[in-house]
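Translate structure to sequence.
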């Protein structure tokens, strides 16, 4: 049986993280005070410090929540039905949609590298996203959908392209248009590898 104290503690932590996600999304890290996060979550500042050592720790928890939600959606598509190629294309399109989400754009793309530091942010991105890209490349190679290249290198190149595309979208004056362009470009690169794989042997 779970204790009421444990339930209350978890609900308090969740309220703080939800509050942080919303305020960091709309006001940014620098302009968001811990007092404002605690007030929006309807808890005391003391309760906040019971769960988090400070604002950066709370930001990293918000980052984890936003990134985990995006990866969960991608996992359903990449691991779902259809051919390996169709799943890969849908995965690219869904990732671009995630880049257009205000919370993902602000917390993961814009502020993550600044607040967490480049190395810590890159480690987090590897932890959350890279495995999906690698699994997708492995599935494409195994199905004969793309030319057989080293999986690790190919996954790293595609992962880098997706990361660069995300940054481009986040900084664009018209993010939706930029998202369409990034999606088309990455799929076109994949199509190039696909055509090579399907060329008849001479």
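Result:
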């Amino acid at each position: 049986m779970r204790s009421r104290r444990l339930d209350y503690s978890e609900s308090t932590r969740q309220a703080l993280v939800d509050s942080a996600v919303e305020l960091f999304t709309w006001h940014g890290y620098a302009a968001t005070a811990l007092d404002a996060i605690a007030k929006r979550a309807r808890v005391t500042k003391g309760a906040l410090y019971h769960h988090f050592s400070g604002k950066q720790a709370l930001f990293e928890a918000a980052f984890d929540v936003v990134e985990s939600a995006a990866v969960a959606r991608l996992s359903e598509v990449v691991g779902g039905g259809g051919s390996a190629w169709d799943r890969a294309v849908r995965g690219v399109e869904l990732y671009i949609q995630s880049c257009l989400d205000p919370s993902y754009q602000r917390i993961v793309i814009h502020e993550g590298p600044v607040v967490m530091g480049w190395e810590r942010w890159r480690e987090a991105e590897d932890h959350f996203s890279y495995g999906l890209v690698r699994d997708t490349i492995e599935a494409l190679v195994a199905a004969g959908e793309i030319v057989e290249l080293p999986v690790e290198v190919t996954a790293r190149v595609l992962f880098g392209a997706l990361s660069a595309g995300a940054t481009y979208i986040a900084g664009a004056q018209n993010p939706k248009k930029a998202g369409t362009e990034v999606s088309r470009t990455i799929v076109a690169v994949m199509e190039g590898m696909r055509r090579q794989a399907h060329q008849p042997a001479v």
